[in-house]
Amino acid sequence: MTLSFDHFSAQDLVVIGVFAAASKVTTLLVALAGGGMNPISLMGKNLIFTMLLVVMLCRVNKIGTLFLFTIINIIVSMLLLGASVTLLPPLLVAALVAELAMYPKRESESVWNKILGAAVFDLVSKALSLGLSWIFMRENPAMVLMVIPIVVIGYIGSVCGLFTGVKAVKELRHAGIIRY
After folding, report:
1. Coil, strand, or helix at residue 180?
2. What does the pLDDT read at residue 180?
3. What's 34's DSSP letter?
4. pLDDT reading at 73 higher than 60
């Protein structure tokens, strides 16, 4: 597969949109089925999101896929779930940093480049979100200190999602759904 700066095909856009919607719906269902944001449902929510992210990055191997996915995901979150617009800058910066991290080996058929992108995206987005929270809560930094363990528990779920993403991509390649 050659690295291309071509436009996204209609099929690629549909895949990105379906994965953005699927990640939002499944993570919401896990949170609701788990009885709220307890540690288990928080880890499960992040695990599923990261696994779907890795599969989507392997399915649509074009520059800007993660950035487009992030834009669609945050628009859905803002319109349907009432997410704050303050989440937009950290997520867009994280998507840009992850795209840059994946750029040198974007042509490779290996899943490890996509794992790197998903890991960088998760780490940078969570770190920048915590930094933004600290800026808004600078009068009471103890509030941010209470959030740090919750973010760490979520990131443990994201790391587990990287490993399940590798397994899912392997199975989907075997089934012929992911081809490259």
Report:
1. coil
2. 62
3. T
4. yes
> What is the pTM (predicted TM-score) of this model?
0.89
Given a cut of 80, whether residue 22 has pLDDT beyond it is yes
61: helix, strand or coil? coil
Alpha-carbon 125 to chain mean position: 9
Helix 112-136 × helix 141-175 angle, to 10°: 160
User: Percentage of the chain with pLDDT > 90?
Assistant: 51
Output phi, psi for 29, to 5 deg.
-65, -40
Helix axes 39-59, 10-33, angle to 10 degrees: 170
Residues comprising the chain, all counted = 180
Q: What angle do CA 17, 95, 92 make, to 5 degrees?
A: 90
**How far, in Å, CA of 92 to CA of 74, rounded?**
9
Distance (Å, whole) CA 6 – CA 3: 9
Q: Which amino acid is at 130?
A: L
Measure the CA–CA gap between 89 and 107, rounded to whole angstroms. Answer: 28
